[in-house]
Specification:
heterodimer, A: 83 residues, alpha+beta, three-stranded antiparallel beta sheet, two-stranded antiparallel sheet, 2 helices, 5 strands, globular, disordered C terminus, B: 333 residues, mainly alpha, 68% helix
């Protein structure tokens, strides 16, 4: 073992896609329902189109290029001109 | 568990079958069809996977068989350098222009390869017998899901290796053998009254299916081709979650047994994770550190897309031709 132990989790906001968070994890949804996953990494839906919320099922690819997001994704200057 | 010895499909597979029982004494013959060549290479690769029933394991490293393998692999690689070039090139050019790797990779995987999708066919119109024929073709791969890519593991730098293992851990059940994807597949097959044995349906496998499997073995086995092996793996993941959702809908429409639906439901969610890890963390990080691997990761992805398209076209032709359901091979001859 080396370095300081850390409790910080690494989370990745995928452009046009889900948010990746380390598992295992229990996610409580808007209705208060708890969803558990044992995976080492899970992908949470950000586009709202998943058939298995709160998990991503790849549906963002069938929706549109720049999903509306609960957690905003930084956009490049060129993308801003598209809005 | 070893693979059953397949029935020869021509001069070369006949000579190879003899050689496998005569300690590598191989008559010098050429394949007389693509089918014959694909099966011969599949058999030679099987010596590296699980072995063939009744065949001496020492033949895995028999010089005469390795010479034949090298000759068939040379043809295979040349053929797919050519076939996948037009798909890979625009992506390679965008990357050379400084575009973001993940965006280029996802766009490549969304490219129209010009044919029908098997998952759409299952979702909308397939009948149960046709789905069962499709499952038999897919079983050649799914009983050893992810295995070929694992040959790449010891050849990678630490960071790329760590991300590949994160994906593989999920594929191999995260320490629970009963959750291994290949095991979920076997449960699905059993629920459909299909043979769950390793490579049980190899005699039914279309040449395109054998070729698709041979490509994965070739990319995994050669250190030179490791970037393509990981590009192939990433494209496979990217092209899995949405088609798996279509499979779930189709299998539910037909009232197929729950374990086979569960297999695709698992892939719908698992591969939505794997595709992001594979493209952004595994490949994205690797390409940033070692830019020279980028072009071959994109070629490997293009191989995956083009090979799936050829398989889909061949399988659809076979399953739509009713009399060919049990002897699929003749349907595309």
């Amino acid at each position: 073992m080396s370095g300081e132990p850390t409790t910080a989790h690494e989370v990745l906001l995928c452009p046009d896609g889900p948010v990746l968070i380390p598992g295992p994890v229990t996610v409580e949804d808007e209705q208060g329902v708890k969803h558990h996953s044992e995976r080492p990494v899970v992908a949470l839906c950000r586009c709202g189109a998943s058939s298995v919320p709160p998990w991503c099922d790849g549906s963002h690819k069938q929706v549109r290029r720049r999903p509306a997001t609960a957690v905003p994704t930084p956009r490049s200057g060129r993308d801003l001109e598209d809005y | 568990m070893r693979a059953p010895l397949p029935t020869p499909r021509g001069t070369l597979t006949e000579a190879l079958t003899e050689a496998l029982f005569e300690q590598g004494v191989l008559r010098c013959v050429d394949a007389d069809s693509d089918d014959d060549a694909a099966l011969a290479l599949w058999m030679l690769y099987e010596l590296h996977h699980r072995g063939l029933e009744g065949v001496d394991d020492a033949l895995e490293w028999d010089p005469a068989l390795l010479v034949l393998r090298a000759r068939l692999e040379h043809d295979l690689e040349e053929r797919w350098r050519d076939r996948a070039r037009h798909l890979a090139r625009p992506a390679q050019e965008r990357l050379a222009d400084g575009e973001d790797f993940a965006e280029v990779f996802f766009d490549l995987c969304a490219a129209d390869t010009g044919g029908e999708s098997l998952a759409r066919f299952v979702q909308r119109e397939a009948e149960t017998e046709q789905v069962l024929a499709l499952l038999r073709q897919r079983s050649i791969y799914h009983v050893r899901e992810q295995d070929s890519a694992m040959w790449a593991l010891p050849r990678l730098d630490d960071e790329t290796k760590a991300h590949l293992v994160a994906i593989a851990a999920d594929e191999y059940g995260n320490g629970h053998p009963d959750r291994l994807h290949a095991e979920l597949w076997r449960r699905g097959m059993a629920a459909c009254d299909l043979d769950t044995g390793y490579a049980a349906y190899v005699d039914e496998a279309l040449p395109q299916v054998l070729e698709q499997n041979n490509l994965m073995s070739m990319l995994g086995l050669h250190r030179r081709l490791v970037p393509a092996a990981l590009g192939h793996l990433a494209a496979f993941e990217v092209c899995s979650s949405v088609p798996s959702k279509r499979m779930v809908r189709g299998l539910e429409r037909l009232g197929m047994p729950e374990p086979v639906v569960a297999y695709y439901r698992e892939h719908m969610v698992a591969d939505a994770v794997h595709e992001q890890v594979a493209v952004r963390r595994m490949l994205g990080g690797w390409v940033a550190r070692e830019p020279h691997v980028a072009d071959d990761t994109l070629w490997g992805a293009a191989v995956c897309l083009a090979a799936e398209q050829e398989t889909a076209t061949a399988v659809l032709a076979a399953v739509r031709d009713e009399p060919a359901l049990t002897t699929g091979r003749e349907a595309v001859a």
